[in-house]
Structure prediction request, 232 residues.
Amino acid sequence: MSEEFKREAAAAALEFVNDGMKLGIGTGSTAVHLVELLGQKVAAGLTVVGVPTSERTARLCEKVGVPLTTLEETPQLDLAIDGADEIDPQMRLIKGGGGSLLREKIVAAASKNMIVIADQSKVVETLGAFPLPIEVMPFGLGATWVALENVCARFGMQGGLALRKKADGENFVTDGQHFIIDASFGRISDVDGLDMALRAIPGVVETGLFIGIASKAVVAGKEGVVILEPRA
Ligand SMILES: O=C(CO)[C@H](O)[C@H](O)COP(=O)(O)O
Prediction:
């Protein structure tokens, strides 16, 4: 069911895509539906170019015929469309469950607008049930870990930190050759303060908190598709 909702959300978001647009193209299982449907539209004559937010997405775009560009060639994009792990009423997001948060944030920030695509389960009142991904430099990991423990404890972390691993037990390494530490908060009461404090730690490359970036969320569920906008 949730796959159907993800596909419905992706299809509805494509209504915002016009001919000639430069797109940021997200990563994750919802974004897979987006890329597949976009590929069908391109085959039917839609002219767009896209910047993929991961190597995975780049490979899928190539497979389904979505033309790609880079932020070097095309530094300003019209629209980024991407999934999320959690969406709060102010349209602050937790992202990075798929490990691509840094490229996703760079691409979203280079876009005039960002639309989030998700099934209803991603919409929450308060962020934090989903562990917050934090992308860190491998260099100095021990020191970064201690600093993260201190900051996260100050902001009420309930569940502790975990270095993300692959199924084979090796460390997960991002497309940018960094590690990811997942912080299990349970509930984040000061989202903006936490983001600022985490970003002040030198070994932190980026956080999975997307604040003030997304302008709309296209959410699909049992009741159909709804378009959400940030609550003031
Ligand atoms: O941030 C992401 C990848 O880094 C994804 O957008 C996020 O994890 C949602 O993924 P899915 O669509 O598979 O639920």
About this structure: The longest helix spans residues 29-43. The two ends are 32 Å apart (CA to CA).
